[in-house]
Specification:
The structure is a single chain. The protein has 94 residues and is an all-alpha fold. The chain has one domain. The chain is built from three helices and no strands.
Length: 94
């Protein structure tokens, strides 16, 4: 299997993992006190926006040709790093 296909599979798996993490944070938000709930809901909105950007990058990757995927990979990696940091922060706060 090519690096392109491996990277694509890894990206899809990570997006699915983040979707599950976001669902867990939503469940926690429903259980929190009012002040904490507002903070958590704000963080969830931020994560949703970042996740949508990550999905958009993933779609660019899927639509790119195998010969051109390296140029898309750079933007995908940046989106991934941003999402990873945001999820780590959210998990540590809540």
């Amino acid at each position: 299997m090519s690096d392109y296909r491996l990277y694509q599979e890894k990206a899809k798996a990570k997006l699915e993992e983040w979707e599950a993490d976001l669902d867990k944070l939503r469940a926690k938000a429903r259980q929190k006190e009012a002040d904490d709930k507002l903070d958590l809901e704000e963080k969830i909105r931020e994560l949703e926006e970042k996740l949508e950007k990550g999905k958009a990058r993933y779609n660019e990757l899927k639509e790119s040709s195998e010969s051109a995927w390296e140029s898309v990979k750079e933007g995908m990696d940046a989106a991934w790093n941003d999402l990873t940091s945001a999820f780590k922060e959210a998990k540590s706060k809540f």
